[in-house]
Amino acid sequence: MAEQLTAPAGPVSIYAEASPNPESMKFVLNAQLLADGVSVDYPNLEAAGNSPLAQELFNFDYVGRVFIAQNFVTITKSTDHQWAQLIPELRTFLKSYIEASGPIFTVDPAAEQKAAQQAAATPADASEADQATSQKIIDLLDNYVRPAVEQDGGNITFKSFNDGIVTVNLQGSCSGCPSATVTLKSGIENLLKRMVPEVQSVVAEGITV
C-alpha cells in the first residue's frame, strides 16, 4: 500500500467561511492538503475509502458530505443542526487531526483525477472535432469557472459533451445549493456559449435545471 499522505507539519490555523449553500461551511487552513486544481468530493462515508480524514469527519452524526481541496475542507451538514454549535467542534477536530499529522489520503487523488478528466475529454466514440471542443470546455472551466466556484467551497468538473449539450458535475457546497441553477444558467452556460459556439446548453448532475 502507498504511504499515506499527510499535511505538512506545523501549527495549523483554521477559520470558517460561509458558502452560498446554507448547509455547507468552508473551513480554510494555512496548510496544503492537495495540489492546486485537485479536489475530491465524498457524498457519503462509503465513498470516502481513500480518505481517513473524511472517514473521521463522517463519524460526526450531522456531517452529510465532505469536500477537500487545496487548502480547505467544505462540510455539508444535516438540516436539523445549527452552525453556531458545530463550527467550534469541527474546527477543533480539524486542527488537532492535521497538527498530529493524521493521514489525509491513502493514495494521492491527483493521478486518478487527471486520468478521469482525460477519459471524459476523449471518449472512444467521439469525433476529433467533439474531442477538441471538449478540451476547450475543460480549459475554460479550469481557468475561468473553477477558481470562482472554489471560493464558494465547491468545484465543477466536466463530464461530457454530446450534441451541443455540456454535462458537468457540481461538488462540495455547490451540490444542492439553492443558487446553483442560477449560476449554472446565467453564468457558466452564457460563458461557454459565448466562447465555444458548438455549445447549446449546460446541464448539471444532481440539480434540476
Could you explain how this protein is built, in words?
This is NifU family protein. With 209 residues, the chain is an alpha+beta fold. The chain is built from five helices and eight strands, in the order E-E-E-H-E-E-H-H-H-E-E-H-E. The radius of gyration is 18 Å and the shape is globular. The relative contact order is 0.16.
Based on the model shown, name its key terms.
209 residues, alpha+beta, 5-stranded antiparallel β-sheet, 36% helix
Strand count, sense and barrel status of the largest sheet are: 5 strands, antiparallel
**Residue windows where pLDDT falls under 50 for at least 5 positions:** none
Q: How many helices in DSSP terms?
A: 5
Structural class: alpha+beta
Organism: Hymenobacter terrestris
Protein name: NifU family protein
Family: Belongs to the NifU family.
InterPro entries: FSCA_dom_sf, Nfu/NifU_N, Nfu/NifU_N_sf, NFU1-like, NIF_FeS_clus_asmbl_NifU_C
What's the short story on this structure?
Residues 14-101 form the Scaffold protein Nfu/NifU N-terminal domain. This protein is an alpha+beta fold. Helices cover 36% and strands 23% of the residues.
Topology:
Elements: E1 14-18, E2 24-29, E3 40-42, H1 52-57, E4 63-68, E5 72-77, H2 83-99, H3 110-121, H4 128-151, E6 154-162, E7 165-172, H5 180-195, E8 201-205
Parallel strand pairs: 7-8
Antiparallel strand pairs: 1-2, 2-5, 3-4, 4-5, 6-7
